[in-house]
UniProtKB/TrEMBL annotation:
Biological role stated in the UniProt entry: Catalyzes the oxidation of protoporphyrinogen IX to protoporphyrin IX.
The name this protein goes by in its record: Protoporphyrinogen IX oxidase
Highest taxon listed in the record's lineage: Bacteria
Pathway: Porphyrin-containing compound metabolism; protoporphyrin-IX biosynthesis; protoporphyrin-IX from protoporphyrinogen-IX: step 1/1
Record family assignment: Belongs to the HemJ family.
Major enzyme class: oxidoreductase
InterPro entries: HemJ-like (IPR005265)
Cofactor(s) required, per the database record: heme b
Source organism: Burkholderia multivorans
Length: 140
């Protein structure tokens, strides 16, 4: 039964990853734009960004983990070194999302100015490329 579902698990996982990475990159670009506004003008824009995060990026992150772990379990990859390296990058992206979401909440609550994370967008792209290569090539 799992073999019959495998292509659907992969398709759902990849779709979730596309939304996750798109959401993370959008967050970074939007935060960059918002950070150029005075702090007193940021709250409304941050609230809209928070709604986007709750509707798109966070569910995509959860689905990425659920379907990714389902694939790893069903294929017996949990002890594979390539998967452990891939998971390190996935954890890093998850941590970035958690940090950014927390900062957005903090800035909305306290009125503090949001700041961009220099190089975060490049880090997201590099992590995603590394994850994709590891997932397709499975080198180690």
């Amino acid at each position: 039964m799992i073999a019959a579902l495998y292509p659907y698990l992969v398709a759902t996982h990849v779709t979730a990853v596309v939304f996750l990475v798109g959401g993370l990159l959008a967050q970074e670009r939007i935060v960059n734009a918002i950070s150029q506004s005075p702090p007193e003008e940021q709250a409304g824009m941050l609230a809209a960004l928070q709604r986007f995060d709750l509707l798109v990026t966070t569910p995509a992150l959860l689905l990425t983990w659920i379907f990714g772990l389902s694939l790893a379990l069903s294929a017996g990859w949990l002890s594979s070194r390539w998967l452990l390296v891939k998971l390190a990058f996935v954890v890093a992206l998850s941590a970035l999302h958690g940090f950014r979401s927390g900062r957005i909440r903090h800035c909305i609550r306290t009125g503090a100015a949001i700041r961009r994370i220099p190089g975060a967008d490049l880090g997201i792209v590099i992590a995603m490329l590394t994850i994709a290569v590891l997932a397709f090539v499975k080198p180690v």
